[in-house]
């Protein structure tokens, strides 16, 4: 039972060297969790984890060991201004590799351990751009990848149902980061809030939901 209720809990955050990922680490640490901040190159105080590199994921999992919380934050935005019919297929493939397949690969490395220990929280950082009910022409590769990440969230939540692992995706809103730009209306603190909330849900919290400002929103 000590393993099931160990303290502090361990949270791994991908893409944590700046922006929302870095702020999520700060807020989770303030909540008392032990943080494993990762980044593609392992710069600064981060552990190297390239979500598009299977060997990197295996090495990170071996080095870090069991975790309780996984925040899939790493993502890329390319071809933002390209129209769909002119979007490079290479850009679409690269976007899905990082934003969808990478998140799935990291889940495959860490979530089985959560299931075995009967506790876990998985938060996939999505976007309003991936919301099917309001999707337009913005950033086709990115928008489609975030919609796919939402589908991954539903699939994973169903796959681990009843195991003590809660899986949700979060729309942080338009946030002032390198990706979001200086004109975005939200601070990184505001963008990170619902991610941190979902990462620390009680056992009766929601699962398989698309969340914004701590509430479910339409897919």
The number of strands is 8
H-E order: EHEEHEHEHEHEE
Radius of gyration: 16 Å
Low-confidence runs of at least 5 consecutive residues: none
Which strand order spans the largest sheet, edge to edge or round the barrel?
A: 3-2-1-4-5-6-7-8
- What is the number of domains? 1
**Mean pLDDT, nearest integer?**
95
CATH superfamily, by name, is NAD(P)-binding Rossmann-like Domain
Quaternary organisation of the protein chains:
single chain
| Main sheet record | 8 strands, mixed
Approximate helicity band = 25-40%
CATH topology: Rossmann fold
Q: Note the overall shape.
A: globular
**CATH architecture group name:** 3-Layer(aba) Sandwich
What can you see in these coordinates?
This protein is an alpha/beta fold and 219 residues long. The protein has a single domain (10-216), classed as NAD(P)-binding Rossmann-like Domain (Rossmann fold, 3-Layer(aba) Sandwich). It is 38% helix and 16% strand. An 8-stranded mixed sheet has the order 3-2-1-4-5-6-7-8, sandwiched between helices. The longest helix is centred in the middle third of the chain and has 29 residues, at 89-117. The N and C termini lie far apart (37 Å).
Q: What's the structural blueprint in terms of helices and strands?
A:
Blueprint: E1 10-13, H1 19-30, E2 34-39, E3 47-48, H2 54-64, E4 69-72, H3 89-117, E5 120-125, H4 140-159, E6 165-170, H5 188-199, E7 209-212, E8 215-216
Parallel strand pairs: 1-2, 1-4, 2-3, 4-5, 5-6, 6-7
Antiparallel strand pairs: 7-8
Helix pairs in contact: 1-5, 2-3, 3-4
